[in-house]
Amino acid sequence: MADYSPKKGGAQAVTMAQTERTPLLPSKRQDLVEEDVYDDYHEASVASGVFNLSTTIVGAGIMALPATMKVLGLPLGILSIIIMGILSENSIQIMLRYSRPSGARSYGGLMGDAFGALGRVLVQLCIIINNIGILIVYLIIIGDVLSGTSGAGKHYTGVLEEWAGGATWWNERTFVLFTITVVILLPLVSFRHVDSLKWTSALSVALAVVFVVIIAGVTMWKLFAGEIPMPRLTPDVYDQKSFWRLFTVIPVIMTAYICHHNVHPIANELSGSVDSSDEKMQTVVRWSMFLCGTIYLCTATFGYLLFGDATGDDILSNFDTDLGVPFSHLICIIVRISYAVHIMLVFPLLNFSLRLNLDSILFPRATPLAHDTIRFALITAFLVCSIFFGSAVVPNIWIVFQFTGATATVCLGFIFPALVLLKDKPLLATKRDRQEAVVMVILAVLSSVVAVSTNLFNLLEPGTPGVPAGLTAYLGTSFN
Fold first, then answer.
1. Best-predicted range by mean pLDDT among 30-34, 339-343, 391-395?
2. For residue 402, what pLDDT band results from cuts at 50, 70 and 90?
3. Contact at 8 Å (CB) between 30 and 365?
4. Distance between CA 398 and CA 450 in Å, rounded?
5. What Cα–Cα distance (Å) separates residue 344 from each residue in 37, 114, 362, 387?
6. Residue 149 carries which DSSP code?
7. In this predicted model, what pLDDT tens digit does every residue of 63-90 receive, in sequence order?
8. How confident is the model at residue 153 (pLDDT cuts 50, 70, 90)?
């Protein structure tokens, strides 16, 4: 297991680091639970922060965005992705702005300062529920892509199954997931600092860019060949059901930008004093949102132009057919493999904040987790085993998380930051800030209600099971 102990410098260096990061206005609530959940590692660069935060953002949600264009039409779809990106950045800036006066070094610490022990525990539970649900879904997606899946009398062939010419012992789902978990995921989740994942995060971002280049290239090829029809420019509304379907895009776009659970872990490791690290984190957030917003806009636009009204809820399903271009089969294989690898590289980042918050609930006054090898190993092993069991043994367990994904995720991304601002304990909010916070809460509540309602309707009238599922599966949202 990887061991990254604090860098040299002795007691004097540790004392200086602690002094530089002392709260400007010590919180009266900080004695509820110690904020010493992180060690004194402060050597991460801005580039490292951008890679890690961007990888946290661009998870499985990227594959669900083209379908939002099919529902909203191209102009409104593009505008929605931009607006949600701006609101998400504002919510993160709220977290950073209010963390400084209270000295909060975690999302739980920020909520604890504003709302006491109840606020802290609530946000920690939301992070645990949200992250473990998404990680289980990620493993299910990896299993579907590599080993294939069946449902409603139809079999979706996995990449490894294609290579072997059929089902064999080495491409069997449980064996594949176990091998990936032990050989790839376990070493990655064993790192004790987020900064240690910067190179895998850079690769993950590169794979997302590769996907954009591929889908843009195929689209341009077919465009010059005159095979791209005129895209829909207005929302697809023709009856009451189609009208309400417009609102199903809200939770998908909102959730695609969620990264708030990793904001503090990344910020805490940035180099420099508290003032310089605050400025660096703001730069990290701006660049990450710009990068991910650009990737999202290109993916959604080119994906919808390429497949039109045939765009699936998860565009990955569209790469299981002939694209009508040279080397179509090879392109589909590259897209599916790069998607699976991308998710594997996102996995340790979500596990990082999951592990920290679980440890904070179980051992609130223990030494920093990175300094306790036994506790670190036990919690890591427990989480990895639980996630593997949930995905490999009970592959339909994601149904349980549809409701938690529709509630916990929007709470973390919008409701909790907005409530912190409306509480405004350090008296920092302006009138405009409060208005934006109210808009965030309204959108988040609307998103949650729509997603939960969709979940209930899907349970009463279930769709086709077994299709490789992304963000829409986690939220239980369907655009069809």
1. 339-343
2. low
3. no
4. 18
5. 26, 35, 27, 13
6. E
7. 888 888 888 888 999 999 999 999 999 9
8. low
pLDDT, tens digit (0-9, with 9 covering 90-100), for 361-383: 998 888 888 888 899 999 999 99
Map tokens 């975690």 to a residue: 106
The SS3 assignment for 151 reads strand
The whole domain housing 465 covers 37-475
Q: Which two tokens stand for residue 279?
A: 């400025």
Interior angle at CA 410, CA 88 and CA 467, nearest 5: 105
* Amino acid at position 347, single letter: F
* Residue 331, in any domain of the structure: yes
| Structural domains of the chain, count | 1
pLDDT tens per residue, range 121-135: 999 999 998 898 889
Report pLDDT for 9: 44
Q: Which residue has the tokens 């304990």?
A: 425
> How buried is residue 206: exposed, middle or buried, by Cβ count under 10 Å (0-12/13-18/19+)?
middle
The conformation of residue 239, written as its DSSP 8-state character, comes to S
Query: Looking at the domain assignment, is residue 7 inside a domain?
Result: no
In-domain check, residue 16: no
Tokens of 19: 């002094």
Residues 6+ apart with CB under 8 A from 2: 187, 190, 191, 192, 196
Q: How far apart are CA 59 and CA 65, in angstroms?
A: 12
**71: CB partners within 8 A, 6+ apart:** 77, 235, 236, 245, 246, 248, 249, 479
**DSSP 8-class letter at 411:** I
In a domain, 27, yes or no: no
In this predicted model, what pLDDT tens digit does every residue of 188-215 receive, in sequence order? 999 988 889 999 999 999 999 999 999 9
CATH number of the structural domain spanning residue 165: 1.20.1740.10
List the beta strands (DSSP E) in 152-244. Answer: 154-156
Mean pLDDT in the chain? 81
